[in-house]
Amino acid sequence: MKNRLREWRDGLLKDTSGGSQLEGSFLNDSNQQFQNIFYKMRPALSLNGFTSRQLRLIQSVTKKHFKDLASVRVEGESSCSQQLVVYTDSESDRDLLKKEVMDDYRRQAEMKIKAAIGFRHVIDLLSSEKKLIVGHNCFLDLAHIHSKFLGPLPLEAEEFVYSVNKCFPYIIDTKILLNTNNILKQRMKKSKTSLSSAFLSLCPQIAFASKESCNLTFSSSVKVEVQVDDTRSSSWISGVKHEAGYDAFMTGCVFAQACNLLGIDFKLYSPSENLACNERLQKHANLLYLSWINGDIIDLSTGHRTAESLRCRDLKKSQTGILFENIVLIWGFPSKLKTAVIKDRISKVFGPTSVTSICRLDETAVFVQFSKLKLVADFLVVKETLERSNDAFSVLHPLSTILGGNTCAASYETYKDICSSPISKLLFADQAEAVGIRWKTKLVERKEELETEEQDNFHEENAANTISVYVEQN
């Protein structure tokens, strides 16, 4: 190999016109392992078909015996690395070659990083331009964005809102806007403020793709055009609710119509101006629902929480209060099991008024709120008893339908423990398994038993103190 490289190098020095005779001798190689090329305006040999060990040997020989030859590795057009031996006519030229190769490495690395970043470019652009971000009940959406593009979710809500506000200083939640602005509340009347309901109420001409429905509802509306396949349409309908793209479309339409109802003229704002600074929107900006059920709102600008929203009182009238200590979490049951069946089976055992409400987390988990705290412990005891038994009674028991197989149950505290884990899975049953839950039932102590035990301890201590005082006095 040393002789082959010397022959090629000497040929270059003898024939300044390019070494046509030498070029022929290399190109006539049956395996095409050596090919004469030019790399950055310098004569070079392309090495093909060598093993990694052979290439390391060539690199070592080149470095040890040839001061005017340099072994370099470059990325080919198909992202495959190519090994070259390049001729340099001086030490300064050799240093220049090294710099050029390093610059290429850096550019290629930056291109790979840029390609890998993907959608993160959009997040960075929105943040750097301080664009107004509009969402509908978007606390969870922002949590996902933070987790995927900004960093791990903080443990405290205050740390989370500080981080979000630093990246997105202007956010408007259309659900809060519809629930807190008097003009929009009057326009919505008593309609629900879910995204699909708000879209139907405020944008019927788009929702029904009909100009007649628009005229029947209100004449003043924002015209929305959507570009599809190089054509623009004002009556475009594609998608269903809960599809990300169509939900974003509905949110934009609801916000545009809400601004129109508030008397905000979009034509008066240039792209560089921030709509969130409008006085009609300012007091609604940077507010998010921490809990829509409880009406808790957090201010992204200050981190302060509001215990009650303007609509929380109405919610309390229409919804039964949530008592977390009365909740049992059940998960791992068959996905086809309906909520009504779960309530029916539990009611058959504990009474028709035993279950206050059932809330489904996903297809694998539900919250069951009992009317009494005592029923939580009773339910878990019954479940554990049925698991241990394998007789005819346990098979025919009404709860066997929902508590068989891999079904697990515990109090609400277990739910908080599972959700506090950094592990995240799509379904709750998978989340619990990933966290390491191996038991099927976690019993809780009855409150009455705890109170009785505390009273007994108090009486025993009191009696002991009384005897001690009596003995000392006598």
From TrEMBL:
Membrane-crossing residue ranges in chain numbering: none
InterPro entries linked to this entry: CAF1_poly(A)_ribonucleases, RNase_CAF1, RNaseH-like_sf, RNaseH_sf
Pfam families reported in the protein's UniProt record: CAF1
Molecular-function GO terms, alphabetical: nucleic acid binding
Cofactor: a divalent metal cation
Signal peptide: none
Family stated for the protein in its record: Belongs to the CAF1 family.
UniProt name for this protein: Uncharacterized protein
